[in-house]
Write a structure and sequence with these properties.
With 375 residues, this protein is of the alpha/beta class. The protein contains 14 helices and eleven strands. The chain has helices at residues 26-29, 71-74, 83-91, 112-130, 147-160, 184-193, 221-228, 231-242, 245-248, 263-277, 290-297, 306-313, 336-344, 349-363, and strands at residues 6-12, 34-37, 43-48, 51-56, 93-99, 136-141, 164-167, 196-200, 254-257, 298-302, 320-322. Strand 10, helix 12 and strand 11 (320-322) form a beta-alpha-beta unit. The model has no long low-confidence stretch (mean pLDDT 92).
């Protein structure tokens, strides 16, 4: 089989362990997210702003996959942005939208000044990561405890060269959610700079006093939790559409990563039904049907989902993007080509190119085009 070249709508960098200790005063650095793993490799404790979150490692073998290999052993470029390109070439992955790893826990920071300083530190480092290759589209981490802080960091990070901002699926603290006009300053800067709003699933703010290592425990908990993580991205998009964000800022583009894509047409239909059948209760009134905003302004990435392909080819949502989740254990590294062929060999050429390359290139037109796939 020839190589299928694809862009990834969901990948991750791994921050250096000394990122915060070398860039922030000690009083702040000690409160930024860090992971301490048990000697048995099966559990870890995440420390965030005075809180402790104890959890089992995300894969059944602890720090290793089913073959006994660590992330760094499986994906040698996980910690090296130069070596990463070798990994990507091997897998047939061209460009990547890249989210943080430990930085994702920043959504549980409760101190506004700490969050602002920490996000600046992550962004000052990751823009250097992005500069290694034009194939890297790193996300700027956006502080969400205050909409004004978010707007300021979007403006600053855009000037640094970021094309996408990482947003947790729900803002922390007591600030109104994404259907509220209090977020208009942030959306306005996104519209002005072209910054893509990039939601990554599983990033809801957590409270250590309530957190138990997942949403559910007991029989089936692992499967139930994995499914539950997908809903945050859907809720964020629904709030933006229902709150009229795309009426006020039609140029804003949204990406939901790692949450699949089959949900898009369902949410579009459900919103339209509510808008038509319960119109007397709808506030604000929208200029267009809700589905039109979703189909035009919202994109989503998937990894293995066979049904996600049908979201485009059978249900008409053109903003579906494949993603590898490199270098995470649950991603496709080591079998990306097998996965791509299984997903796309029977798909018409135009749809295949759209999902593997075109939709990504539409969001990030400055990225050099991917090589031609070999068929």
């Amino acid at each position: 089989m020839g190589k299928i070249w694809a862009n990834s709508g969901d990948s991750h960098l791994i921050e250096p362990e000394d990122l915060f200790t070398t860039s922030l005063p000690a009083s702040l650095a000690e409160r930024m997210p860090r992971s301490v793993k048990d000697d048995d490799g099966r559990h870890e404790t995440i420390y965030v702003d005075g809180q402790e979150f104890r959890r089992r490692m995300p894969n059944s073998g602890g720090l290793t996959d089913e073959n006994g290999m660590t992330v760094a052993e499986r994906a040698p470029g996980a910690n090296d942005p130069h070596l990463r390109l070798t990994d990507l070439d091997q897998e047939g992955i061209w460009a990547e939208l890249i989210f943080p790893s430990i930085g994702i826990w920043s959504s549980s920071i409760r101190d506004r000044e700490l969050l602002k300083a920490g996000m600046e530190a992550i962004n000052n480092w990751s823009i250097g990561y992005q500069a290694i290759s034009p194939r890297y589209v790193c996300t700027a981490s956006i502080p969400l405890l205050d909409p004004a802080d978010a707007a300021a960091e979007i403006r600053r990070s855009s000037a640094l060269g970021f094309k996408a901002g990482f947003f947790s699926v729900s803002p922390p603290g007591d600030v109104d959610n994404f259907n509220s006009a209090v977020w208009d300053p942030a959306w306005a800067v996104c519209a002005d700079t072209g910054m893509v709003v990039a939601f990554h699933i599983g990033t809801e703010p957590l409270d250590a006093s309530q957190h138990t290592g997942g949403y559910f425990r007991g029989a089936g908990g692992a499967l139930m939790n994995y499914v539950e993580t997908t809903y945050g991205g859907q809720r964020a998009v629904t709030k933006m559409i229902a709150g009229g964000v795309f009426d006020r800022f039609p140029g804003v583009k949204v990406m939901v990563s790692e949450g699949g894509a089959t949900w898009g047409p369902f949410i579009a239909d459900r919103l339209d039904e509510a808008y038509r059948q319960h119109g007397s209760m709808v506030r604000p009134q929208l200029r267009r049907l809700p589905s039109e905003y979703l189909y035009e302004n919202v994109y989503a990435s998937f990894q293995h989902d066979r049904s996600a392909v049908k979201a485009m080819t059978a249900m008409g949502w053109n903003n579906v993007i494949w993603g590898s989740d490199y270098p995470h254990i649950e991603g496709t590294f080591g079998h990306s080509q097998k996965t791509l062929h299984e997903l796309f060999d029977d798909v018409d050429a135009a749809s295949r190119t759209r999902m593997t390359q075109g939709a990504f290139a539409e969001l990030f037109p400055d990225v050099p085009p991917a090589p031609r796939s070999e068929y």
